[in-house]
Amino acid sequence: MNNYKTFGSKTIDIVIEMGLGACIAEWESLARELGKDHGVLVYERAGINHSDKSDKERTPTNIAEELMNLLDGIPHDEKIVIIGHSQGGLYACEFCGIYPEIVKGLILLDPLSVEDNRFKKELTAKELKKSGADKSNNFILLETLVKLGLKGLVKKVMSQAPPFYYASFSEEKKEDILNSLVNLTHLHTCRDEYRLAHDEEVLRNMVSKDDYPDIPCILVTHSSEEAIKENMEFGRNSRPFAVRIEQLWQEIMKVYLGYSGRAIWIRAKKSTHYIHLTEPEIVIECVNNIMQI
Length: 293
Fold this sequence. Notes:
Layout: E1 3-7, E2 12-17, H1 24-34, E3 39-44, H2 60-72, E4 76-85, H3 87-98, E5 103-109, H4 118-122, H5 125-131, H6 138-147, H7 151-158, H8 171-180, H9 184-196, H10 200-204, E6 217-221, H11 224-235, H12 239-253, E7 263-267, H13 275-278, H14 280-291
Parallel strand pairs: 2-3, 2-4, 4-5, 5-6, 6-7
Antiparallel strand pairs: 1-3
Helix pairs in contact: 2-3, 6-9, 11-12
């Protein structure tokens, strides 16, 4: 069973597909704001935080189908807006491709795309490690530390990392997010999700760009200058290298502009990856724009 929350008094007309390993607590503030005028569903995918595991592989297609199964049991409008952040963008895109008849529009915030493997293909192993683009070992490291009984260390370190670096949460919400990061089922699920989101065969079985429905789509990508600064600061990289990584990242995300003839691109002015935390007004504006179509 999926753990989920709804916000607002209306039937659901907005669904939020969160990023890799994200918990409801990360999105609750924005969901409440959107809930003033809409019905909002935020849910944790199978195996994530408080949701039960699924016996299905963590492929984008299976995840999209599981979201549809969840929606079948929740009152919702005939047409809904899907917001997908980061890896959740890949899942939101697949959902819209499979179920276009119930989609009013798609909002993608710094989304993972089917071309994310370009990082591995176009960078050397050393460059890939320096870039910070490869998340494959992150959850293995966390699993190892938890198994060694170092949950306290994990929580201490991760409390200084995203999303905490970008926003303040109540103690209850902070603890909920940190507890997920010492939950072995959660960590293992994240690892599986990431692996299958980069599996070439799995990606080929998704709805292709050529077969994609012509639905309204707003792509929001981060500020390049802010991302370059962050890469230089935390990755300790040179500016030319950070610029190169940033250019590739933007190219990879812009593949979504070719999915629909009704796709538009917006650049965040002061955000890096966590646009919904640092510039939530952009998300609200995107929702309003699609609702008026």
